[in-house]
Specification:
- By secondary structure, the protein is α/β, with parallel strands linked by helices.
- The protein contains eight helices and ten strands.
- Helix content is 40%, strand content 25%.
- The strands form three sheets. The protein has a four-stranded mixed beta sheet.
- 44% of the residues are buried.
């Protein structure tokens, strides 16, 4: 059987470069969404705030400095082809070494600490690593630094099946409403529907790696995205909480089959500072 050998040193280098890029650049779809929001925003205060966010992103890119002071906790998704044979150092070590080097060389804030003692690990590791086995002989790498002003506003709901679509939309809107200005809106909302307690949360995180403005290929799920975004923007929270028409840049949903007795829904909030890099080796 054919197996393609990939040395994990290559993955380390990819992570290193992606982390450096993500630290100073908004995702292209995020820049587009912010500019589009500015065109549609009627509130003078919110328009001013949006202009400031856009200007900040431009300055960060030109000066190669962090686009946000919260340089986040590194989230890495590795979709590994089943025809790949990994050699070299341990995969987890390779990812963490890439993150460690990038945060040193990029002069990014190290924000990772022990949950009990609060002692900082001093190098922004360990990264949160998710692996999926896929077809083929390649590895798709997704890197996203996740800030915690927005992460702290996220929620997981174990709904009753009878609550259905309306229950899902209500959970999304209620999460954003309770969060208010705290996650630095306009936000990007990732939603996981179905699965189990844990897989549902991963779906919500993975939804945030989609380009803003894309729709789920499943029509009824895409309708949930559309309706939830409409209702969220009717909350009148607005950019940075200044009460405007754009509270969210987008809502993206991913789904999995679930148990007949449950309807898990995870809502993962991302601030306006969407930083996501993708590459393949």
């Amino acid at each position: 059987m054919y197996m393609r050998k990939i040395n994990t040193r290559i993955i380390e280098e990819k992570i290193y470069g992606m982390a450096l890029q993500a630290g100073v650049n908004l995702s292209p779809s995020c820049k587009d969404a912010l500019n589009e929001s500015l065109k549609n925003e009627e509130s003078e205060a919110c328009a001013f705030a949006l202009k400031t966010l856009i200007e900040n992103a431009e300055i960060a890119k030109k000066s190669e400095t962090a686009v946000c002071q919260d340089t986040g906790m590194s989230v890495v998704i590795l979709e590994i082809g089943q025809e790949v044979f990994l050699e070299g150092k341990n995969l987890k070590d390779a990812v963490n070494d890439g993150v460690r080097r990038a945060y040193d060389d990029g002069y990014f804030r190290k924000s990772v600490c022990d949950p009990l003692t609060r002692e900082n690990t001093a190098d922004n590791t360990p990264a949160v690593i998710h692996t999926e086995i896929t077809e083929g002989d390649k590895i798709k790498i997704t890197y996203m630094p996740k800030g915690f002003g927005s992460e702290n506003m996220s929620k997981l709901y174990m709904l009753k099946p009878a609550q259905g679509v309306e229950g899902i939309i209500d959970a999304i809107v209620q999460t954003v409403k309770v969060a208010g200005s705290r996650p630095c809106p306009p936000v990007y909302v990732g939603v996981g529907i179905g699965g189990t307690f844990d897989s549902c949360a991963f779906l919500a995180k993975k939804a945030l790696t989609r380009d803003i403005g894309t729709s789920n290929p499943r029509e009824d799920v895409a309708e949930i995205e559309k309706e939830a975004l409409k209702r969220v923007n009717e909350l009148n929270i607005g950019c940075q909480g200044f009460h405007g028409s754009v509270t969210a840049l987008g809502v993206s949903c991913e789904w999995l089959p679930t148990h007949i007795a449950g309807l898990p829904v995870a809502v993962n909030i991302q601030c306006h500072c969407v930083r996501c890099e993708k590459d393949t080796v």
